Amino acid sequence: MITHPAYTVEPWCLRETRLDLDVIAQSESLFALSNGHLGWRGNLDEGEPHGLPGSYLNGVYESHPFPYAEPGYGYPEAGQSVINVTNGKVIRLLVDDQPFDVRYGQLTAHERVLDFHDGLLRRKVQWISPGGKDIRVHTRRLVSLSQRSIGAICYEVEALDQSVRLVMQSELVANETLPRRGIGDPRDSAALVAPLMTEEHTSGGTRVSLLHHTAISGLRLGVAMDHLIDGPASAQVSCASMPDLGRVTVSATLQPGQRLRVVKFVAHGWSAVRSQPAVRDQVAAALAGAMTSGWDGLIAEQRSYLDDFWGGADVEIDGDPAVQQAVRFALFHLLQAGAKAEGRAIASKGLTGPGYDGHAFWDTETFVLPVLTYTAPKAAADALRWRHSILPAARARAVQLGLRGAVFPWRTIAGAECSGYWPAGAAAFHVGADIADAVVRYIDITGDECFAQEVGLELLADTARLWCALGHYDPHRRFRIDGVTGPDEYSAVADNNVYTNLMAQHNLVSAADAAAQYPDQARSLGIDPSEGQRWRDAAAAMVIPYDDALGVHSQDEGFTSHELWHFDQTGADQYPLLMHFPYFDLYRKQVVKQADLVLAMQLRGAAFTAEEKIRNFAYYEALTVRDSSLSACTQAVLAAETGHLDLAYDYLTEAALMDLDNLEHNTRDGLHTASLAGTWIALVQGLAGLRESNGNVIFSPQLPLGIIRLAFTIRVQGRRLHVEISPGATQYRLRDGAPLTSLHDGRPITVTTGVAVSEPNRELPQRTAPTQPAGRVPRRHRRD
Amino acid sequence: MITHPAYTVEPWCLRETRLDLDVIAQSESLFALSNGHLGWRGNLDEGEPHGLPGSYLNGVYESHPFPYAEPGYGYPEAGQSVINVTNGKVIRLLVDDQPFDVRYGQLTAHERVLDFHDGLLRRKVQWISPGGKDIRVHTRRLVSLSQRSIGAICYEVEALDQSVRLVMQSELVANETLPRRGIGDPRDSAALVAPLMTEEHTSGGTRVSLLHHTAISGLRLGVAMDHLIDGPASAQVSCASMPDLGRVTVSATLQPGQRLRVVKFVAHGWSAVRSQPAVRDQVAAALAGAMTSGWDGLIAEQRSYLDDFWGGADVEIDGDPAVQQAVRFALFHLLQAGAKAEGRAIASKGLTGPGYDGHAFWDTETFVLPVLTYTAPKAAADALRWRHSILPAARARAVQLGLRGAVFPWRTIAGAECSGYWPAGAAAFHVGADIADAVVRYIDITGDECFAQEVGLELLADTARLWCALGHYDPHRRFRIDGVTGPDEYSAVADNNVYTNLMAQHNLVSAADAAAQYPDQARSLGIDPSEGQRWRDAAAAMVIPYDDALGVHSQDEGFTSHELWHFDQTGADQYPLLMHFPYFDLYRKQVVKQADLVLAMQLRGAAFTAEEKIRNFAYYEALTVRDSSLSACTQAVLAAETGHLDLAYDYLTEAALMDLDNLEHNTRDGLHTASLAGTWIALVQGLAGLRESNGNVIFSPQLPLGIIRLAFTIRVQGRRLHVEISPGATQYRLRDGAPLTSLHDGRPITVTTGVAVSEPNRELPQRTAPTQPAGRVPRRHRRD
Hints:
The structure is a homodimer. Chain A is α+β, with helices and mostly antiparallel strands. Chain A has a domain at 31-311: Glycoside hydrolase, family 65, N-terminal domain (Beta-galactosidase, Chain A, domain 5, Distorted Sandwich), CATH 2.70.98. In chain A, the strands form nine sheets. Chain A has a ten-stranded antiparallel β-sheet with strand order 1-2-10-11-12-13-20-17-16-15. In chain A, strands 9-8-14-19-18 form a five-stranded antiparallel β-sheet, with no helix packed on it. In chain A, strands 21-30-31-32-35 form a five-stranded antiparallel β-sheet. Chain A starts with 6 loop residues before the first strand and ends in a 24-residue tail after the last strand. At the A-B interface, helix 13 of A face helix 13 of B.
């Protein structure tokens, strides 16, 4: 069993039983609470010590000019960076004359528990102050899944052996000092160091509110807090506000055994267009709503929301407690990332940290949305509606680049391209096809016709138009897409990347199908039948490079002619390679950062024969170094499909433990949302073999030795399907709704409520396990 | 005849007969004086008005940090920019109470003449002050070709109708205010705005000196001036110095017809290592030397130097006065760029302006050095010795990039890579082969064995080693060089660029030959015979992409499969394309910025059949937009070789008039040194068909209609060969030395002093002229 240094392995929670300041920033990410709109990192209530203080509102960013040593046409002029908004989590405590600070005095007990069932972060601390006063602090924190503007904290402190004089300061802190990033880092620019300009601050009673705006992006932010105080009758309450600080102070003397309990309600709001009074009122209204629910009401709503989620999303795995914990941790955080995003992006770190500047990438559509589509479909729809909302920016970018249709940004918060390195960023046009793929999957799996007509068709059409503008027919009427960058960031600007071309093909056909299905909407979007035919023609003529001599697909034209990377001369300390070798060297050799052709075999499986998959997987395994967290889960899926179950499981656990074990040493900056999704992908698309085919779900289940049961529930077309895999057979149960037809190992099955269907699992022949580059074999995972 | 708006067409000078302030910056470049060590732009003596004040010392630069929106391994951390050193040209004049400033009062006569025979810039001005005083100013200026530290000015002023009270201020001005470049331009950084830090300033008598250093690059600069004054006995002289200003003031009252004449001697010096006293003394010594020569001595030395130069370099063309002027203008400026560089680079703008940050590129070896090799061979050797001197930096760069041998920088002043965009810069490894090509040509044409052993072999070996590290053998034992950028900057990071591979092939074979020729030196450089054999093997196995279907070479692998650029949809105002289209779009389509494959056909002509040259030239003509000044001359050469003489002549004149007609609208930033060289290349390598073959020179002369005679002298192996082409025949005369064997149209000829050899010119069949992209046909040049 994997033993986390600081976290116990439990099925329904993440528990920390000692406070290790060396990994405090990692813990802050793991214990982050979010609802997709508001994110609170797991900072200690008293604010310090901290690794990285963080409170985020989805969509709130500041712009900063992009510097270039040599500028070029079409380069983005400015970046967008997520900013740390006003911190509403802070509750400081003075114990006699000593601030409660775990770096001083003596921490005699510490526990934090993030509960996946009820969505609360609990903390229990016992502390002896440097002056010898013994207290117990018990806090519960939530970011509401039912009221998107609301975070709340129930803070209880108890005097133990002696009476103590307590002063509790519940605060709103704007423009917190953050750790510097590094010399010359453009994100240390003045605009980002103290991004919030004050507009107003008010206080009265137990209530304080602050309003700010950002200087360049021009967003207005409001935050307000109110409190319910329960303590000795002699307790005194006062409040104060300053431009960057709001404070409610409670002073009390507690006798031994006596308690002071404060419930803090914090409401956040922001707008790019609404006026100061409007934002002020919006925040006050949200706060009033939360106060009406009260603390008990909020936690009941939270539990109810999560019960509903788990009822359609839980994954059980018998035989591996660590993976059991990891997959629930992953699903919980994926829900947190998307639940209430409502028209904003799901960023690559969710709202758990400032990594990647808070940007959303293609990861969302390719890794996160498949999971949400099957487990929290409304969140998936919301994320795609965000893409739809930035179509104007994507169309403008296409015009700027001399193209047609929509060019979605490689990385963005609000829609503008924010990639400062075009070969890896702006040339990765596959993001458009990834969005289209997510649209098609969402529509197929949910049957959401309204979405298909309002959002889906237009996204499909504008992405399809891009491929027609980007590609061209060669003299033999083959459709080529030259000079683009596929998923593998160790290749760039290559011709006919197989992944890109296959995804574009799917994009084109899906757009044509959708236009045929919704002719009225198609007409209103200016799609005439000849355009649909052009899409089909391009798809049919798509070039897919194949190396006859090697008997494998070439990741792009010429790739298999390139020199093999000298893995035997590359030391373990030279990974990730991009930190130790120049791009030009990586680009010109056969070395793969992350699944590219292998991802194509997952997402466009029907485009490959089983034999091709086996050969391709083996060939690219030997080249793939997994310097990206967006690789292990895909390798798990294809390892499983090609009959390498143990290898699949090793990749599965790598994806699953990415953040819990801090495998890439950067969990401090936020969770790897796509890798969290990869845990589910590796289990459900890998071991259970879930795919979509003609709008239906299909399965090819198998279990590696040692895993005695894998069970999960997914939402399909408004119904919940429960799948339970044993070593020899798989049982399908429909929890609700009309009968569902599916395939098990290629055989049709129909599942009806109340009747379990059991099917034997296939048995794959033993095959020689593929090899990885020297030193890049995945960690062998012992299952207990 | 081309009529320059401001310059008359004369065979031996450039003359400006009116002062047009709209083109003053262009004039400053055209009238720049330089000796390769010190450069003075043609600023007016009185300093203002100016377009761009400029005084440069070869090798003097300041560093400035390079910003990156997204940093990457191996990116240069700092740039190097040429700085404007202390201006020693300034002589201000107060006429009664009015400063002599042509923007005020009345300029009744103006003439400036740059004389290619004596190397002087003469200025004659007649001016009526706003107060009605009439004066005549006559100045002569030189930058000495014999004393590299020295510039000098003879300044004469005469009172005409009335007596005038004159105050003349001869100055040294440090940290002049320069025009700003643009918002956010990193070269407007503080380090470059006022780059000179004062160290000392002294004055006494008619003499002032200033010492400064640069803050980051740590270079020490000294400048001193002294004067000879000849005027009325009542003239008063005083002097003063401040940290950034030295001034000698001469006050006199001139009666009508009376003159004041001041000769100003300015000595510059700099060092990266020498102490303050040492640099101070070095400058004082140089000044003493110049004072000893005196003004007349300096102009006599200048004339003598130039007589010697023209005796081995002149080009005469009968039938086109504008081109006659242009080729002498070009040769004069090429000499100025390289004459006394002595261990420093020849920058792309010489020392005529700050364009391209004062960097040297591959242009020097590929365009400038062939001309200097045949006309001023010592300057060519010096430039290559500079490359040899930066070998340590080039080897360190190779190590940084994981390669072996030497990686010469794409652009640099002092040796460090200064390219901020690696796909166009750092991946253009052909620079190494270009240097090797220049080394081989220099050795072959001069027979300089000492250079070959001291410098040549090591340069050839270290560049050859790079190709072995960069390329690899595919399974069929073909040697591939993948992922590099050739000369055409509208393609990047492509596999097996024909130009690069052919130049690398030549580099490898030449290195092996040199190692065999100098076995002792080879051994001392660690080259064993097996390494030489590896070089030959790689050269023999080199992949040269050829498109069988089209019957042409593919510029790189895949190039001819790419979409054709939509020239018919590209407007005239969308050139240069890189200002209006993103790189990714240019890279992925068939569009050529500048000769690439066509340059390969010039430099590696024997690698192509005559038929291949005809087909290739026609194919690439239709794709080449000449958005670079490094193209027209090469197209001229191949147009001539493939029998399109009129087209060749059009390209010839484009190269010739690049700066005189300001064709690229940026002559203000300095002259296009490579295009100046292109004038000679187009005439001598184009019309006369000069090539090298097995160490001999060969000719294939022909003249377009209207050109009745082309004659030129070149230096070959210590001798001067005079070639005179008439429409029907060519006459060869050896001016001195042992008999010389050559080829005329493939037939061997031997030329002996005193005996002219006459050979008939070949007649090429009429062929259909190739076409250019819409709107990119070269300007038709009318010859009178």
